[in-house]
Amino acid sequence: MQIRNRKIAEVTIVDLCGRIVAGEDSALLRDSIRTLISQGEKNFVLNMETVPYIDSAGIGELVSALVAVRRQGGCLKLLNLTRRVYEVLEIVRLVTVFEIFYSEAKALSTFPVTPADTRAMRVRVS
């Protein structure tokens, strides 16, 4: 699995690519989220557009990440789930636990905007 992070205002978008399965892949996701939290990041969108498969270990890491982020007063949302990943989350009844979006702009619009975010967004537009 490969992970790339990008930041828009106060939200870190984590682009995931590859399967999230037991072993190095799920550990990489866990370590990435924990590192970002330790750096002060609180709000996350996990872009799973190129995640074709997730197993029980991967599901466990998603739940663990959600709990860790919430403990820090933040939010974690899922973006662009593939059909197969959505079906797995539906089977284990996690589609009601996670906020799921299919538009990055829509996902970002659900985070509270601080005055600093507004200034940063204006600077990017001009």
Explain what this protein looks like in three dimensions.
It is a single chain. This protein has a single domain (2-121), classed as 2-Layer Sandwich (Transcription Regulator spoIIAA). Helix content is 45%, strand content 24%. The protein has helices spanning 24-38, 56-71, 83-91, 104-109, 115-125, and strands spanning 2-8, 11-17, 43-50, 75-79, 99-101. It has a five-stranded mixed beta sheet. The longest helix has 16 residues, at 56-71.
Order of helices and strands: EEHEHEHEHH
Give the overall average pLDDT: 91
Number of strands: 5
Q: Could you give the distance between the termini?
A: 36 Å
CATH superfamily, by name, is STAS domain
CATH class: Alpha Beta
Relative helix content: 40-55%
At the third CATH level, what is the topology name?
Transcription Regulator spoIIAA
Strand order of the largest sheet: 1-2-3-4-5
